[in-house]
Amino acid sequence: MIARQELIKKLKGYFDLNIYETKVWLALLSKGISSAGEIAEISGVPRSRTYDVLESLEKRGFVIQKLGKPVKYIAVKPATVIEKLKNNTTTYAEEKVKTLSNLKETTEYKELQELHKTGIEPIKNHELSTSIKGRSNLYLQMRAIMEDAEKTVYLTSSAYELLSKQKIFKDTFAKLKKRKVDIKVMIADDEEEAKKLSKKLGVEIKSRPINARFVIVDKTELIFTIKPTNVHEDFDYGVWINSPFFTSSLAYMFDLAWASDSLRDK
Questions:
Q1: Which candidate, 120, 52, 61, places its Cα nearest to that of 85?
Q2: Are residues 132 and 72 in the same domain?
Q3: Which has the closest alpha carbon to 191: 207, 176, 208?
Q4: What is the distance between the alpha carbons of residues 195 and 208, in angstroms, rounded to a whole number?
Q5: By residue range, what is the domain housing residue 237?
Q6: Which helix (H) or strand (E) holds 246?
């Protein structure tokens, strides 16, 4: 059996195998049960390497060694392999999440925080202005600066965006309310939608004809997006600015819009 190079390349990526592992597994699948010598001949993998490859595949659950002599190997069904890999991936992810969740309690994390603080203090405000690509990155940075807020968080968005990331915003708003941070949210949707969202997120939300997406924190930091939410998330694009001079001006206009009950009718 000579497997197509395109198939080998794709399976190698899907199953996280190297070239030799992929070729040996495919060769064994085509035969069902074979000796190392037969597999080497079919797969084109050097015989001296076939034993190591088979041992590696056996540990990962792709093949089973048959009892008896001569030693032969049995291919595990692809469906069984996929389920095993899915379970392994889930277990690994859960362990990784647990490790990352507990990381903040370690001395290593405190050292990281200290290093970041030491490195960022000499940077001037204008040097903290940067672009952010990708919607997931935007949300992460928005959440990060909001959670650091001490006095105020001003947010303009849409009902669609707030609902699509409801958990992020609801959890963040809850933390801020405990610290008595003033939260103001405006959406371009109608008053009825604003009331519904206000109940869901637990903060006051007003309807205003402002088609924009930005967050202002403590009137010093600002993240605003360049594109609307209907673009693909990979092409979403924003700018993060740490400039009290610029941001306080935008916060002033936000306050005017917030206070104006007649703005919606204009």
A1: 61
A2: no
A3: 207
A4: 13
A5: 126-261
A6: helix 244-259
